[in-house]
Amino acid sequence: MGLPPYFDKAALSAASLLANFSADRFKQTLEDHVVAIELGKGSACFEARVASELTVNLLARLYPRLIIRSRGRRDAHADSLCRLATQINPSVTLETDRAKATLSLGFGQLKSKGGLVSVGSDGWIARISSRSSLGFSQSQNPFGAAAAACVGVANVFRATFADQLTRPQLDTETALSTLDFTPATSVSRNPTIADTKIAATSLVGIGAIGNATVWALARSSVSGELHVFDPEAVELHNGQRYVLVTPLDRQKSKVSLASVALSESSLLAVPHADRWNAVESESARELVAAAVDSAQARREIQATLPKAVINAWTQPLDVGVSWHEFLDGPCMCCLYMPEEKSRNEDSIIAEAIGLGGQEMLVRVLLRNNSPVGTDLIKQISAAKGVPIDDLLAFQDRPLRTFYQEVVCGGALLANTGSVPVDVPAAFQSAFAGVLLGASIVSHAAKLGVPARKKAVFNLLAPLGSEFLVPLAKHPSGRCICQDADFRLAYARLHANGLTAG
Questions:
Q1: pLDDT tens digits, one per residue of 197-241
Q2: Distance CA 498, CA 493 (A)
Q3: Where are the beta strands (DSSP E) in 50-168?
Q4: Is-above-0.70 flag for pTM?
Q5: Contact status, residue 108 vs residue 48, Cβ threshold 8 Å
Q6: 464: left (phi over 0), alpha (psi -120 to 50) or beta
Q7: Cα–Cα separations (whole angstroms), residue 40 to 307, 422, 450, 471
Q8: Which of 486, 487, 467, 459 lies closest to 167 in space, CA to CA?
Q9: Strand ranges (E), 230-367
């Protein structure tokens, strides 16, 4: 039995989610639990396969012991899920004795209620129940099934760490539409996504959220082009919550990973191993899906005046998606207007790695995406008291990547408290990414999105029934969407149906 190779990053995430956190206690709790994935009647259809595959993908990144079986036995689908778990965590223990299970998730109709929580879906609709087993429809829409998987894993997490969470109760009977982000009923819209074509769309950021967006889109039937933007390569700790990543993917370009994931779908990835650059992306500014990790990056995207923006985000206690048009409603900047003067990134990183007073050097390295190099490693080693041999393995990393892995990832330098760390759980990031993918498709199919609202979900508690929150332009009147010059530039850029200038 072995914990995943990204355990340190998972522990860092748990530290921000759980009360009275202790790394030793966290490790022992995970080792004590065996999570069973029970595949019942109807679990061979497309939606059920999507749900069970994403469930195993997420669980294997955290739990070292799993049981995967189909109606009491192993079959081809169960075997494929076992292989997936082993690819993600080569040290995972695949138990065979159902009596060892401490937690379980059920897929399809089972003679019993299916375990701790049953996962089901119907097209756009995700279903979760801790009372009865659920089924799946025969659609080719992956979004309800993928969202249900994320909520199912969230329920397992709540049950695992119930004594360290404020509201660890399970979801009793929940049905959520990933189309309009409301509780689903018998009259909820549930249109097909067949023949939907994505055009002039960019996904900016292939991190944890962007990984899940690509994962879901790759399993949809939509066609067209998707421009993907990210300058970074995969690091080992990314595997904690990147659903496209296995330990073998270290140092692969994130955009190439997205391209490979989409290669067997009808959707063509157009990779850009760079940060968002609207000048180079004039053909892809109809819609920008933002899956970036900072308020500054979101403001920079909005300032390039895409026609429409979908924004996905995670915070320690909630995740969500918001939809933005520039002239009529609040733009993305309205949600991320700085309320007070904040420290620059170069200052934060310089302090964290022991280079206080050398902010200009740090700024140049960040701007040029330059590697840390041996000389800087020597300075960091002396300043932070870390053996230089431990740091030399990171000398070829760009400085931002070095900071994310060594400080935020907790690899060698402890976070001092002056540098904020926000590391969501894998199921939180994946849920946000699935919802972002659903919104990209609904936009392309002209199915509409909630106007002037954002959808907010807390997966660390039962979902509830109210997810949509009204939005308005920033009350200060200082946002760019309220500036006459920006508004004129936007109108000219998108006049006569143009999506680029």
A1: 998 899 999 999 999 999 999 999 999 999 999 999 998 888 999
A2: 7
A3: 65-70, 93-95, 103-107, 117-122, 125-129
A4: yes
A5: yes
A6: left
A7: 45, 37, 35, 42
A8: 459
A9: 267-272, 287-290, 308-314, 319-325
